[in-house]
Amino acid sequence: MTEPEHPSAPETREVPRLTAILLAAAALVWTAGMLLSARIKITGWADAEMEVTSTAYALPGTVSAAIVAGAAVALLVLTLVNGRRTLGATARFAVGTGSGLLTGVLCALPIFTINTEGTIYAAVGGTLAAAATIGGALAAFRIPPVIAAAGWATLGVFLIGSLLNTKQIQDPLLDLLGNDSTEAAAHANQYFSYGQSALSGVAAGLIAFAVLRRARRRAGADLRWPFYLIAGAGAGLLSVIAEVLTRTAGAQVVTLAGKVSELERSVQQILSTNRLNSALIVLFLGAFTAMVAVGRTLSPAPDEDEDEDLPVTS
Questions:
Q1: What is the pLDDT of residue 187?
Q2: Taking a C-beta distance cutoff of 8 angstroms, is the pair 19, 149 a contact?
Q3: Which top-level group of life is the source organism from (predicted)?
Q4: Are 247 and 56 in contact (CB under 8 A)?
Q5: Residue 307 within any structural domain of the chain
Q6: Are 158 and 64 in contact (CB under 8 A)?
Q7: CA-CA distance, 274 to 281, in Å (whole number)?
Q8: Is residue 143 domain-resident?
Q9: Are 78 and 139 contacting, i.e. CB atoms less than 8 angstroms apart?
C-alpha cells in the first residue's frame, strides 16, 4: 500500500465551486450595475464639459468594481480548472491574468462604445481593463480562501457605501453632524466620510474573518493568523490599487475634468485625497478588526503544572 499524501495547507485549498460561483456572480452584477449607471450619467448630458466631469466622477467606482470582478472571475476559472488538473505557479498566473483580462475587456465595452473616436473613453476603457487584469493576477496567488474572503469583504464595503450615501440616510446624518452652514457643511461631510470609512473597515474585517472561519470548518484546520490579517486588509488594499490606477492610467480623464474650471480642479483634488485616506482607513481597520476577531477565538495553552502548585485542602 502507498502512504497517503500529506494534506495541503488550508490556505492553499481551493474554495468550493458554489462559493466561487456566488462570488463571481455577485461581483459581476455589482460591476454591471456600476457600468450601466456610469453610462447613463455620462450620456445624459448634451454638454461636452459635463460629460467629462461625469466620467471623472464615475471612474473611481467603476475601477474598484472592475478589480473585484476580475479577481472573482479568475478565482472561479481557477477553481473549475483545478477540479480537473493541478496547475503550477506559472500556469496558474497565466490563467488568472487571462481571465482578468477577458473580464476587463467586457467591462471596458460599455464605456468605450459611448464614443469610439474619443480618446477619453479609450482611456477609461483601458483603465478598466488594466484594473480587472490586476484583479485576475492577484487571484492567481495560491491562497484561494483568502482571495474569496477579501472579495466578499470588498463587496460588503461597496454595499455599505451605497446605502450610506442614499439621501434617506446621508441627509439626516449630515444634519446630525451640524450641516447648517457652508463651513460646517465641509466639516460634516469630512466627519461623515471618516465615519463611513471606519464602519466599512470594521465590516471588512468581520466579513473576512467569518468567511475564513467557514473555510476552516470545511478544511478541518485553521489558517495561520497572517492570512486573516491579509484578508481583512484586502478591501482597503484593492481600494488603494484602484486609486493608484485612477491617478495614473486614468490621469487623462481627471486632468480634462480639472480643466473645466478651477472649482472642478479643486473638487477633483479633494475627492482624490479623500478616497486615498478612506482606502487606508479601511485597510488598517479591516486588518486590525480581523486580528482582534482571531485573538478572541484563541484560548491560552493549559498549564500542566498548575494543579501541582495548588495547595491540597482536606
A1: 76
A2: no
A3: Bacteria
A4: no
A5: no
A6: yes
A7: 10
A8: yes
A9: yes
Q: Say what the pTM is.
A: 0.88
- In one-letter notation, the amino acid at residue 228 is Y
The pLDDT tens digits of the residues spanning 48-72 come to: 788 889 899 999 999 999 999 999 9
Specify the pLDDT at position 97.
97
φ/ψ (deg, to 5) at 54: -65, -40
Number of folded domains that form the chain: 1
Is 69 part of a structural domain of the chain?
Answer: yes
**How far lies 111's CA from each of 37, 83, 156, 164, in Å?**
11, 35, 25, 26
Chain segment 105-134, per-residue pLDDT in tens: 999 999 999 887 778 899 999 999 999 999
Q: What's the confidence (pLDDT) of residue 2? A: 39
Enclosing domain of residue 261: 10-296
Which residue, chain included where needed, has cell 450595475? 33
Check if the beta carbon of residue 131 is closer than 8 Å to that of residue 70.
Answer: yes
Interior/surface letters 183-219, b for 16+ CB within 10 angstroms, e for the rest: eeeeebbebbbeebbebbbbbbbbbbbebbbbbeeeb
Tell me the three cell numbers of residue 77.
476559472
Q: Are 171 and 192 in contact (CB under 8 A)?
A: no
Q: How many residues does the chain have?
A: 314
In a domain, 21, yes or no: yes
